[in-house]
Every structure is written in C-alpha cells, then in structure tokens.
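User: Teach me something about this protein's shape.
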Amino acid sequence: MKRLLLLIISFLLLAIGVSFAVHNAEPVQLSYYFGTVSGPISLIVVAALFVGAVLGVAASLVIVLAQRRKASQLRRKLEVCEQEIRNLRQIPVRDKH
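Assistant: First, the predicted structure itself:
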C-alpha cells in the first residue's frame, strides 16, 4: 500500500512537472557573472532547483560528518569509562571493622 501511494505521488509530481514545462516553454535569457545563457524558463528553473539541492546537501553533509566524528569519539570514551567501571567492580572490598 505504501509503495502504491508513493508511486501515485511520483506520477502526480511528474505530471505537474511536465505541465509546468509545457506551459513555460518560452525561451528566456539568463545573465550571470560569466556570460549569458538562453533556454526555456522551465529548464532554467529546474536547473536552479537542482543546483540549490546539491548545495544544500553539501552544506548539510559537512554538519553530518562532524556529528558522526563527535559521536565516534564519545563512543570510544564511553567504552573506556565502562571498562574502568568493570575493573573497579572486580576489586574486592576490604572492610577494616
């Protein structure tokens, strides 16, 4: 059921995207720092969304990798602490009374 719902949503998004491309097929000229590009507005919008998504993933990837490194360091520290606790529990208690 979940796959069917995902498939229906995917086809719906594809249909919306094709409809957007057909309705916005007029060529536009995009000027940027290094030159100009001429193409359909729908293609330029999709390219801008793709570049934005790639940049967003790259920015979040830096944060995710830093958090994984920190989690790894904390796991190692936890293992050392747990080993120390096990060692302390094995030492017999001496009562002087």
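Now, about its shape. The mean pLDDT is 89. The two ends are 71 Å apart (CA to CA). If you'd like, I can walk through any region in more detail.
User: That's plenty for now, thanks!
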